[in-house]
Specification:
Elements lengths: L7 E4 L1 H5 L8 H12 L3 E5 L4 H8 L8 E4 L4 E4 L4 E4 L4 H8 L8 E7 L2 E4 L18 E2 L10 E8 L6 H11 L3 E7 L2 E6 L4 H9 L9 E5 L5 H6 L2 E4 L5 H6 L4 E2 L7 H10 L3
Parallel strand pairs: 1-2, 1-12, 2-3, 7-8, 12-13, 13-14
Antiparallel strand pairs: 3-4, 4-5, 6-7, 6-9, 9-11, 10-11
Helix pairs in contact: 2-9
């Protein structure tokens, strides 16, 4: 039996596996299909919701894959079965939604029961979901609910817009939640101890290998624990600069614009 350096490939999506058009390139699709045929597990680990990720994987001829979504709040298999969830408590989620912020600079979002809610129309967000068609519903969060909340997240026009809000959220909700940036302009709030790393650990409890047998790729602060705890964590050249500072000894690979994850996979797994 052919031996490979890792049993599973775990990848973030935006800024990592997806190209600059926010879709998975043909070279990447071909790469993942070939490595999957060799028996290597494919795991998507992303801040995106299940609907988005399922749409991406539907482009690939892969029989088995797992989807860690909303930064670890859920796991689904390729057939759409939910294997795990860890949602914000309903009352905490609703309180987070009522946090005051500059509505001219920041928009409020939530993922709840695989739906996306937002406080106002933001057309620029459409480009991120053009392949899946996953789209938001505009709601009044003061009259909304906190049920089945995977995450609440705030998108700012600039990174500086979120600094004060981050501090307030940490003071008020830090003991009950996990608060992390998925990009420099997107601040996300999940239930306590939710992360890609903890959920990946939960996923592989049912498998015959360990975190040390996984290779992972990421570009954001929400990837930090995952990249630290697997056997090998690779950082994208286009990553959030803060991630380089936190993980200075981790290998840096190329940019997502060049489908560098696929190139790296081909090299280490011997795929032509």
């Amino acid at each position: 039996m052919q031996q490979f350096p890792f049993r599973a490939i775990v990848s973030d999506m935006d800024g990592t596996l997806l190209n600059t058009n926010h879709i998975v390139g043909d070279f990447t699709v071909d790469t993942l299909e070939k490595v999957a045929k060799k028996g290597i597990d494919i795991v998507m680990a992303t801040g995106r919701g299940y609907t988005d990720v399922a749409s991406t994987l539907s482009r690939m001829k892969i029989k088995n894959a797992a989807m860690i979504t909303s930064n670890g709040a859920q796991i689904h298999d390729l057939q759409g079965n939910r294997l795990y969830s860890n949602f914000l408590p309903e009352d905490i989620a609703f309180e987070v939604m009522q946090t005051k912020f500059d509505t001219s600079r920041i928009c409020l979002n939530s993922y709840q029961n695989n739906n996306w809610f937002i406080n106002k129309d933001v057309p620029m967000l459409h480009k991120y979901h053009q392949a899946s068609g996953f789209m938001y519903e505009i709601v009044d969060f003061s009259k909304h609910h906190g049920q089945d909340t995977e995450k609440v997240f705030f998108i700012g026009k600039n990174a500086e817009d979120l600094a004060e809000l981050e501090q307030e959220l940490k003071i008020r909700f830090g003991q009950f939640t996990s608060i992390v940036y998925s990009t420099p302009t997107c601040l996300e709030v999940m239930n306590k101890n939710v992360s890609k790393a903890t959920t990946l650990s939960h996923l592989i409890e049912q498998r015959d290998y360990q975190l040390a047998d996984c290779i992972a790729f990421g570009d954001g602060m929400n990837d930090m624990e995952m990249l630290s705890e697997v056997g090998k964590g690779c950082i994208m050249q286009n990553a959030d600069p803060r991630l380089f500072g936190e993980l200075p000894d981790h290998e840096r690979i190329g940019s997502n614009s060049n489908e560098s994850v696929a190139s790296y996979i081909r090299a280490i797994f011997g795929i032509s």
